[in-house]
Amino acid sequence: MYGIVNKAIQDLVTENFGAQKWEDILERSGIEEDFFISSEAYDDDITFKLAVAVSEEMNMTVSQVLIAFGEWWVVRTTKEKYGGLMESGGTNLREFLMNLPLFHNRVMLIYPKLTPPEFKVSHISENSINLHYFSKREGLQEFVRGLIQGLGIMFNTPTTIELLQTRDLGDSHEVFKVSW
Fold first, then answer.
1. Alpha-carbon dihedral of residues 169, 97, 106, 80, nearest 10 degrees?
2. What is the pLDDT of residues 124-152, one digit of tens each?
3. What pTM did the predictor assign?
4. Are residues 101 and 118 in contact, defined by beta-carbon separation less than 8 angstroms?
């Protein structure tokens, strides 16, 4: 993952709980880095160690941490750092989700070493859409749930997210039914 992801975790913690809490999390995680360069690629293991350390330090499940981080990523990180890119995705939640399959193509222009997930959409209706999530990385489905929730917040659209299929149960990829 790029450093911007780890930096966003740091920002989430320090803004909500203070710099000392971040130092405690870094120590608990056992990772050597004490700062992250946004444009540098880091081993995924660092991000997972940070998520586990946040979970332990904040007395939350890793799933809760990933959901909270997904929301933060959309509402704060991407909106602040990539506002124009986010605005180009659509004017409402439905449009954004429909355009999501092409979104990472634009992101790869900024981060050429990115190994992005792939998204596809199906069962498109006026009030719902099925979002298919394909990734080489495992264990991030709750982060994706948080991203979707964050998009709902960004577009001021209350959402309901139902996991229809998951690799955890032997499926080839995750499918989320997003309703609004």
1. -100
2. 999 999 999 999 888 889 999 999 999 99
3. 0.88
4. yes
